[in-house]
Design brief:
Layout lengths: L2 H20 L6 H13 L3 E4 L6 H11 L4 E5 L7 H4 E7 L5 E7 L6 E5 L6 H4 L1 H8 L1 E4 L2 E4 L5 E6 L12 H4 L4 E4 L5 H11 L13 H13 L4 H12 L10 H6 E3 L3 H17 L7 H12 L4 E2 L1 H6 L3 H11 L4 H5 L1
Parallel strand pairs: 1-8, 1-9, 2-5, 5-8
Antiparallel strand pairs: 3-4, 6-7, 10-11
Length: about 325
């Protein structure tokens, strides 16, 4: 298969997935698109929004359209790490001997829905850290690999609601994207009512196989990135570091800490997926700027002044994009 055919095949499968998910999910086009971008880039997604906006339905639908094993973990304050990764149990063999046997937890699936992740205690939240970063689980002194692809989709309610535990920065940084799920418009809400209060319940069908998904992920890694685009990503991320020579004024004013290197990695990988989804084999400046909000919003830590004035991380990122020129020569001059 030629490169052009592989790109067209990627674009066709991508559009088929969007269309199939659209049979169930009303609106949220940006949320669906960014979730698929993270999936093909091999990253994890954090969905934030108040209850009842369809976050869990989106993840369940994604499991239906992909030929992957799927598990759901409902996070609650009494959930323990062993409830996620599994534990060793004493089992009796046919000849009467007792042996330890590892019982796999729900994390041993291709697609894992961590529902309301900020309802669980930090100890339990951290049980996902190794799985998300290393794609492995250590239990009983043994490292067990997770089968590829491994994709975590976590939902959380806004942290100012009662009974929630804010995710620590180390775990937030392991999410590829953080997506904010907003309220539907009047037309979208009307369509939701039509689909959910009648006798016919919409459903989605399988679109691509596991092997096809892995092939699409491999193609993403092969997309070249021009040096001037990569340099732009570097300058964007460096502009988020308060006190640094390349820091943007808004970062010095409103940020305590800027993005980690994972932010730059996310922008490059996500840009590659978006380029392929549009039938291109090159990452553009527009790709990077379009994806900056979901890639960086959870990696910037605001200071007291920003919180007091109600300046959001999205506001800061937009001003940083305006500050950083696309042309590196403009910086030197």
């Amino acid at each position: 298969m030629t490169t052009e055919e592989r790109i067209e095949n990627f674009r066709r499968h991508y559009e088929a997935l969007r269309a199939e998910i659209g049979k169930v999910i009303v609106g949220h086009a940006d949320i669906v698109e960014n979730t698929l971008i993270a999936l093909f880039a091999g990253g994890h997604v954090l969905l934030e929004g108040v209850p009842g906006l369809g976050k869990t339905l989106l993840v369940r639908t994604l499991g239906e359209v992909l030929d992957l094993s799927f598990s759901r973990i409902q996070f609650t304050p009494d959930l323990m790490p062993a409830d996620i990764v599994g534990t060793n149990l004493v089992m009796e063999t046919p000849d009467g001997r007792r042996v330890f046997e590892f019982q796999h937890g729900p994390v041993f699936a291709h697609l894992v829905l961590a529902d309301e992740i900020n309802r669980a205690t930090p100890k339990t939240q951290s049980a996902l850290l190794e799985a998300m970063q290393e794609h492995s689980v250590t239990a009983g002194g043994e490292i067990r690999r997770l089968e590829e692809p491994f994709f975590v989709l976590a939902t959380q309610n806004p942290i100012d609601q009662e009974g929630t535990y804010p995710l620590p920065e180390a775990q937030l940084d392991r999410f590829f994207f953080k997506l904010l799920v907003g309220y539907p418009s009047a037309d979208e809400l009307s369509e939701v009512l039509n689909r959910t209060t009648s006798t016919s319940v919409p459903s989605a069908s399988r679109v691509i196989s596991r092997e096809e998904l892995l092939e699409m992920q491999r193609l993403v890694r092969e997309v070249p990135v021009a040096s001037h685009v990569q340099n732009y990503v570097v300058r964007l991320v460096q502009a988020t570091h308060p006190g640094a020579e390349a820091a943007a004024p808004v970062a010095n004013q409103f940020l305590r800490f800027g993005s980690s290197p994972r932010g730059a990695q996310t922008l490059i990988l996500a840009g590659k997926v978006r380029a392929l989804a549009h039938g291109r084999l090159n990452v553009s400046f527009e790709d990077i700027e379009t994806l900056a909000l979901p890639a960086l919003r959870h990696r910037l830590i605001r200071n007291f002044e920003a919180e007091a004035e109600g300046v959001t991380t999205d506001d800061i990122i937009r001003r940083i994009i305006e500050h950083v020129p696309r042309d590196a020569a403009a910086v030197e001059s």
